[in-house]
């Protein structure tokens, strides 16, 4: 057996034993506090939730979240391109310019539609 395999198996067994032992030690030795305040749900600083579970939210929140995801994923596509821009040459540069122009067109469209206006 190779030394890397033995080392990997030892590390895996060590982690498999150490994680449950730490969880049990935390449960046994950790501090406990019980009470009304401790058992309440914490909602981002709001003491108690106002309204019911069937409360309606504005579509603007969901629309903004989707727009954020779209433009965030765009940044994820730009990282590999930035790493390999020299190997891709002018073809890769042209492809990224087209991609960015499409995104800019979408941004201009949502700005003209007033999606980001909260009034």
TrEMBL record:
CC per GO annotation: NADH dehydrogenase complex; plasma membrane
Give the record's membrane topology.
Multi-pass membrane protein
Q: Name one Pfam family in it.
A: Oxidored_q4
Q: Which reaction does it catalyse?
A: a quinone + NADH + 5 H(+)(in) = a quinol + NAD(+) + 4 H(+)(out)
Q: Which GO terms describe its molecular function?
A: NADH dehydrogenase (quinone) (non-electrogenic) activity; NADH dehydrogenase (ubiquinone) activity; quinone binding
Instruction: Share what the entry says about its subunit structure, partners included.
Output: NDH-1 is composed of 14 different subunits. Subunits NuoA, H, J, K, L, M, N constitute the membrane sector of the complex.
Protein name, as recorded: NADH-quinone oxidoreductase subunit A
Which gene underlies this protein? nuoA
């Amino acid at each position: 057996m190779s030394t890397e395999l033995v080392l990997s198996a030892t590390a895996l067994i060590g982690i498999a034993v150490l994680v449950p032992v730490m969880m049990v030690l935390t449960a046994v030795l950790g501090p406990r506090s019980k009470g009304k305040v401790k058992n309440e749900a914490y909602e981002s600083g709001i003491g108690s939730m106002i309204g019911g579970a069937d409360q309606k939210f504005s579509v603007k929140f969901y629309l903004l979240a989707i727009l954020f995801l779209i433009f965030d994923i765009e940044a994820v596509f730009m990282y590999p391109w930035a790493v390999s821009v020299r190997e891709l040459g002018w073809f890769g540069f042209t492809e990224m310019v087209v991609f960015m122009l499409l995104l800019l067109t979408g941004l201009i469209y949502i700005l003209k539609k007033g999606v980001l206006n909260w009034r």
